[in-house]
Amino acid sequence: MSGRVLLRGKAWQYGDNIDTDAIIPARYLTSSDPKELAKHCMEDADIGFVKKASEGDFIIAGKNFGCGSSREHAPIAIKAAGISCVIAKSFARIFYRNAFNMGLPIFECPEAVDGIGDGDEIQIDLASGTIRNLKSGREFHANPIPPFMQELIDAGGLINYARSRIAKKAGEK
Amino acid sequence: MLSTITEKILAKHAGREEVSPGELINASVDFALGNDITAPIAIEAFDQIAAPKVFDPSRIALIADHFVPNKDIQSAEQVMRMRRFARKYDIEHFYEVGKMGIEHALLPEMGLVLPGDLVIGADSHTCTYGALGAFSTGVGSTDLAAAMATGEVWLKVPESIKFVYHGRPQQWVSGKDIILYTIGRIGVDGALYRSMEFTGEAIPFLSMADRLSMCNMAIEAGAKTGIIEPDEITLDYVNPRARRGFSPLKSDPGARYHEVVEIDVSAVGLQVAFPPLPSNSRPVEESGDIEVDQVVIGSCTNGRIEDMRVAAQLLKGHKVHPNVRCLIIPATPSVYKQCNSEGLIDIFLDAEAAVCTPTCGPCLGGHMGILAKGERALATTNRNFVGRMGHPESEVYLAGPAVAAATAIVGKISGPEQILAKTSDRK
Questions:
Q1: Are B383 and B296 in contact (CB under 8 A)?
Q2: Whether residue A149 has pLDDT greater than 90
Q3: Tell me, what's the pLDDT at A153?
Q4: Nearest partner of B399 among A79, B350, B412, judged by Cα
Q5: For B381-406, how does the pLDDT look when each residue is reduced to its tens digit (9 = 90+)?
Q6: d(Cα A48, Cα A39) in Å, to the nearest integer?
Q7: Which of B:159-218 have CB within 8 Å of A?
Q8: Does B317 touch chain A (CB under 8 A)?
Q9: CATH number of B158-233+257-269
């Protein structure tokens, strides 16, 4: 079971349809090194992002965050840039999968997106999905993580999950 | 229960009688693919899974198509990692320069993806194969690694939206125009998480190239896949190519859809999608006076022989406008060869267009046609996001091959009528 994890940091606000080319432009995809990718995180959406974001901060975005390409480099860049969680009104489906598969926490919560300002200090309880704007004192509740996704997270991501599937198949033979 | 084609394919691959939208399933995979950008991360994840072998070396394709011919040392190293992995695990379908084509043009052409299949690919445009009546969807690199190891993928059964296309397309109007129009109607998240099923009396008028273009861009509406029931046109395409057996499936009449969208195709004109979203589409006549610096004709959306023929038909006897660079990229070696034997390459070269070897290159701002600050391109590709083809302050307009060829000649975004008028003036 996952324990209670409280994350605290600043929220950086973005609009709708932030695509993976904006999160990590293709010109940097000759590398898959997280440190290298982190240097260019969000570059074409906000050239100043890497400078202003600190370890543990949050990205807050409108609908369809992560649309476009399947590049896992996008959640890798976000995670390696120190972002602890992304909250959006909705996520594009491949980004959603990738985030779970590699263990970047994400939450869908339109009310929180509307109720958090750029640069606000916020706190999230990962287990319950409770988001608190420490500036305004308002509290929001994200949709809970679906049980299968929780199973993936508890297994330690898709790599471990696949490893256990292979062991199970070998056992059946 | 009455089911859609999507639900039937997923049920079959999950070993179930039926499945319902919203259910999470573990499904077997008929074919999995990755490219030189996504495969290196998948290979690393595969090594971490520590599987002794891949699930089936004949059902995986690794295609080096994005930054090739290798644009720099780093991209050469990414391809080298793929090559080593392919040799180590006897991957039958590893393709690089010479045999390589753009993945989503190459695999259908080679008969490696088939009706009724479940295909996953670490590339968002994997949804292209829905045109064959397959359930085919883009995933991330870790998903590809898990599928290479286990032959399985986790999927949420999507709801389906039924698009009913009435009427007959006008001359010059292609699958690209129909899908740009459709995305313009529903928006870039109009089909988020859902399957777009394309149906209606207009479908038999559409070639496989048109259908592949349409399904290719389902992801640009946020969809999990685009899909078209196999018909005679599909089977005529697939039968001579198929490398293995397959079983086409169809939706049950009365199957449940989240939504039904009706579109009169006969009223859809040639489209142009303005930056920075594929949903910003409008008729070419309403695009105004827009000069361009570059035209790109190619990509997994429009790099097939049918697209090349349309471009050649318009470029024949003309010159590319002096202010425009026109890049033509046949998507696969066999499309290239066909262009050559039909005399299209001569037409392109006489028009002073450049004909490039197959690559995704400029579409994603990789190489082979990058834009400078303030430059503008019109392309037959699928994305016009900020900075997609180069500098963040450059622009991409999307269209089909007829508008692209006409624009290359006129130097401004134009439809083919302007070229045909010009041609008859000279007679």
A1: no
A2: no
A3: 73
A4: B412
A5: 999 999 999 999 999 999 999 999 99
A6: 11
A7: 188-189, 192-193
A8: no
A9: 3.40.1060.10
Question: Is residue B122 within 8 angstroms of chain A, CB to CB?
Answer: yes
Q: How confident is the model at residue B48 (pLDDT cuts 50, 70, 90)?
A: very high
Are B377 and B395 a contacting pair, CB within 8 Å?
Answer: yes
Percentages of chain B per state (helix, strand, coil), in multiples of 5: 35, 20, 45
Partners of residue A166 in chain B, C-beta under 8 Å: 49, 51, 149-150
Q: What are phi and psi of B325, to 5 degrees?
A: -100, 125
Distances (CA, A) of B214 to B30, B80, B226, B314: 22, 33, 8, 22
Q: Domain residues of chain B, as ranges? A: 1-155, 158-233+257-269, 273-416
- One of 3.30.499.10, 3.40.50.1820, 3.20.20.220, 3.40.350.10 is the CATH number of B1-155, namely 3.30.499.10
B290: closest CA of chain A, how far (Å): 24
Which residue of A21, A43, A163 is in closest CB contact with B50? A163
Q: Which of A70, A161, A169 sits opposite B38 (nearest CB)?
A: A70
Q: At what angle do helices A158-172 and B141-150 cross, to 10 degrees?
A: 10
Rounded to a whole number, what is the distance in Å from the CA of A159 to chain B's nearest CA? 6
Which tens digit of pLDDT belongs to each residue from B99-155?
Answer: 999 999 999 999 999 999 999 999 999 999 999 999 999 999 999 999 999 999 999
Domains B1-155 and B273-416 share a fold: yes
- Distance of alpha carbon B204 from alpha carbon B132, whole angstroms: 13
Neighbour tally for B43: CB within 10 Å: 25
Region B273-416: CATH code: 3.30.499.10
pLDDT at B302: 98
The rounded percent of chain B whose pLDDT value lies above 70 is 99
What pLDDT is attached to residue A1? 41
